[in-house]
């Protein structure tokens, strides 16, 4: 699907900003939609390219952008050649000012397409897998790092990784979680949906059901909370490939956990929650962690990736993969009403210091202007070019 309007140009920077993403059902797609909305509101011509399924889920056209399908699967396959060819056809029909790819998969396709316009790649995730697949992913990292004019990392560890792999210009670009709509239900109504009594703890986690999120750790810890008086109830909002294994684990452990599937009422769920938990093996600036702190919901999270720099002392941090640590942290907060309330207050205060969506957008607009205002004009990226240092 694509919008019918023709590309326009602005006096300051003629041409179209092309935003490219691969398969996404969560944070990357939300971020690209927010950028598309903000850029078009600022008068930019924006074209989003990615799998047709992303348009169906995030509706970039409703955000003001045009859309052209470029099918980039979640993992490298021979189909990447078709994606590169499709992107080249799209770029050939546009007056492109900047091509901005989101994620390593989209970054690889963008580098291989060799665009004439400056290429920006945002790294949203770290490579966690090992073996042959991990080796291939690390090769992709190197190609993308060396092929982009500017590499943006959503957290400092990603910036450092890109620079170490030869990125010519690696910068921090924190991704702000979109502001949630106002809740539509009261706390009692939300809790009634899950049969939670007034004195019963409700623990919430939100995210894609993927092995990286380590919901198995949360399920194993929750099985212990069944014996609490009153017992805690855990709900996990999200969909993904780990649904069936998690459902089986919940059943086998008789854990008080409900998988809610995809939800659009996270603001309501936060109103009903006593505690938020993130058990991931790695995150940059996880959207749910931001949402929880903004809502003043106390958070237990793993000390991985960009989470410590995100939350500071406004959350209880635990080692990844440690069921005992999650269990102890959650029990400690549930048994300390005053401590839980104080943590919620610190979380809201911490959230007030984060960059807003508007500030994130302004940083990118300034970067695009920087890349297109030089007298030499845009350069074609070269994946084999040596690094010239880190910014």
UniProtKB/TrEMBL annotation:
Keywords on record: Glycosyltransferase, Transferase
Domain spans labelled Glycosyltransferase subfamily 4-like N-terminal: 26-175
Pfam families for this protein: Glyco_trans_4_4, Glycos_transf_1
Any one GO BP annotation for this protein: carbohydrate derivative biosynthetic process
Glycosyl transferase family domain: residues covered: 190-348
Name listed for the protein in its UniProt record: Glycosyltransferase
Molecular-function GO terms, alphabetical: hexosyltransferase activity
Keyword Glycosyltransferase tagged: yes
Species in which this protein is naturally found: Micromonospora craterilacus
InterPro entries the UniProt entry points to: Glyco_trans_1, Glyco_trans_4-like_N, Glycosyltransferase_grp1
Region (Disordered): 372-391
């Amino acid at each position: 699907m694509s919008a019918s309007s023709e590309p326009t140009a602005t006096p300051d920077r003629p041409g179209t900003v092309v935003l490219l993403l691969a398969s996404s059902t969560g944070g990357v797609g939300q971020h690209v939609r927010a950028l598309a909305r903000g850029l078009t509101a600022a008068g930019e011509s924006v074209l989003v390219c990615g799998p047709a399924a992303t348009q169906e889920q995030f509706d970039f056209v409703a955000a003001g952008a045009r859309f052209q399908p470029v099918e980039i699967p979640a993992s490298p396959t021979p189909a990447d050649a078709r994606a590169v060819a499709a992107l080249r056809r799209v770029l050939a029909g546009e007056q492109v000012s900047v091509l901005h790819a989101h994620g390593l998969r989209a970054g690889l396709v963008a580098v291989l397409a060799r665009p004439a316009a400056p290429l920006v790649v945002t790294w949203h995730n770290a490579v966690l897998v090992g073996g042959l697949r991990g080796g291939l992913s690390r090769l992709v990292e190197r190609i993308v790092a060396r092929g982009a004019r500017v590499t943006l990392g959503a957290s400092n560890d990603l910036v450092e990784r890109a620079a170490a792999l030869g990125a010519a210009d690696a910068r921090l670009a924190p991704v702000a979680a979109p502001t949630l709509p106002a809740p539509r239900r009261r706390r009692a109504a939300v809790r009634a949906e899950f049969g939670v009594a007034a004195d019963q703890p409700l623990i919430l986690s939100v995210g894609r059901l993927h092995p990286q999120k380590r919901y198995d750790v949360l399920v194993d810890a929750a099985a212990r909370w069944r014996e609490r008086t009153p017992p805690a109830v855990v709900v996990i909002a999200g969909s993904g490939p780990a649904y069936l294994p998690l459902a089986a684990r919940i059943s086998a452990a008789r854990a008080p956990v409900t998988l809610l599937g995809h939800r659009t009422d996270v603001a309501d769920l936060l109103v009903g929650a006593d505690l938020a938990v993130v058990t991931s093996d790695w995150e940059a600036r996880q959207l749910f962690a931001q949402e929880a702190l903004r809502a003043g919901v106390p958070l237990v999270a793993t000390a991985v990736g960009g989470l410590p720099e995100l939350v500071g002392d406004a959350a209880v941090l635990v080692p990844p993969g440690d069921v005992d640590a999650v269990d102890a942290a959650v029990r400690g907060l549930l048994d300390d009403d005053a401590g839980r309330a104080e943590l919620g207050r610190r979380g809201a205060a911490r959230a007030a210091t984060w960059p807003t969506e508007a500030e994130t957008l302004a940083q990118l607009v300034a970067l695009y202007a920087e890349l297109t205002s030089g007298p030499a004009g845009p350069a074609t990226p070269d994946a084999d070019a040596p690094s010239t240092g880190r910014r």
